[in-house]
Fold this sequence. Notes:
Helix content: over 70%
Amino acid sequence: MDNTMIWIIIAVGAIVVIGVVALLARNARNQRRHVQAEHLREEIDHESHRVEKREALAEETAAKARAAQAEAEAKAAEAARLQQNADTHRDAVTTSREDLDARREHADAIDPKASRDEELQPDAPSPGKQS
């Protein structure tokens, strides 16, 4: 064999060795990337569980807020109804007092003795109209 043939065999061997090394390096790189990707997926799964728990908490809190709002609206409606009842009672009291005052004045007007008593005591308050 001559020198050229030896160099060709060495060159082919070097190319094969370089190819094998490149293939091994690529496989090692791919394995590292696979491991890294799996690690990222685990982190994502863990984070997803935390996010789902937080979402459930947010939904629960929103439901409580809606319930509290509904309760507040019901209480406001009850307060408005009670206030309306109180106003109705006040109006009835005012009407009753006006009626009683009118009846008292009428009784005083038709009672001859009440008229004389008032004439005798001008500074005295009239019956039923005390301050």
